[in-house]
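This section describes the prediction task in plain terms. A model, or a person checking by hand, is given the sequence of a single protein chain and must write out its three-dimensional structure as a string of tokens. No templates, partner chains or ligands are provided. The sample shown here is typical of the held-out split.
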Amino acid sequence: MVRETPYFSYAVGELPRGCQLCVRGEKLVLFTTGACPRDCFYCPLSEKRKGDVVYANERPVKTVDEAIEEAKIQEAKGAGVTGGDPLARLDRTAEYIRALKEAFGEGFHVHLYTTGALATKKALERLYDAGLDEIRFHPDLFNPNSRLFEVEIRNIRNAFDFDWDVGGEIPSIPGQFERMKWYAEFLDKLGAKFLNVNELEFSETNLRALIDRGYKPISNESAAITGSLELGLKLLEWGGENTSLSYHLCTAKLKDAVQLRNRLRRMAKNVARPYMEVTEEGTLRFGIAEYDDLDELYTLLVEGAEVPEEWLYVNRERGRVEMPEGVAVELADAIEGDVRFFIVEEYPTFDRLEVERVPLP
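The expected answer:
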């Protein structure tokens, strides 16, 4: 009954619509705030996102228009609204959802993750009226004695008063099988559609808390937690036999090797300059030259080396002149002195993360 998907994940039943778009790289990741009513020990949120900030993918945004522009670059067919807890900034979250729906149409699928702590009937009505299609709850399942847990469970019930898809999304934490089963049964009795289970991973911010609790990585090359995947599979096998929910076990490999790569590919073809090569992985590959004086370097390349101006781009923000890879290889062999040539690969994202730099002799 448990099947392996083409995306290195595992499923029982049909993947939620939000996941179907996500694995194809078609979902904008809309982070509406780092604020959250909880402080989970396994939270992977980076330090720069723990404040009250907004991101569309890797792009910090100040306005709805910037988020819409990012969605256009990605050719997104939907958005996943996340945080923190997006309901901690309800007005903002509803505004962004409504604006995306107005910009791209009702077919633009929006799902949202929330703890449930702030999901009052009025809050849920605001989200529904804004156009939210799918809501996923992650209550304080692994701390059932917390003051928020009872509130979250009560609020989850409210979500079934609206005509949208309701499900759960939780991490697979070794040693917590009984709590995970309890939540699956709870959702099933309410008539939820699905339960997503995420393979637990180390991050810079949860590393110490996980190590202190005895969790270990599966290898030196992976951030995935030993036993998390196996526990997730165990839950899917049990759930497929004992509930009517659909299940999706989202693996660390899916996020890195499939979802991110597919999103990068969609973005790369829209942001690549003529001198950039789009690789199979969705990165941008090209040559660069660095020198203390960019204007002097540009003059040297155009007048001294006779490189056509249309082959060059002066990137003052990065302090370099960019060019086709083959041109950089030829120039590195011909120009002597302090000019430094490299072949670089970057993500086509707003932050243009550099993933490789090869110096040319």
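For orientation: The chain is about 35% helix and 20% strand.
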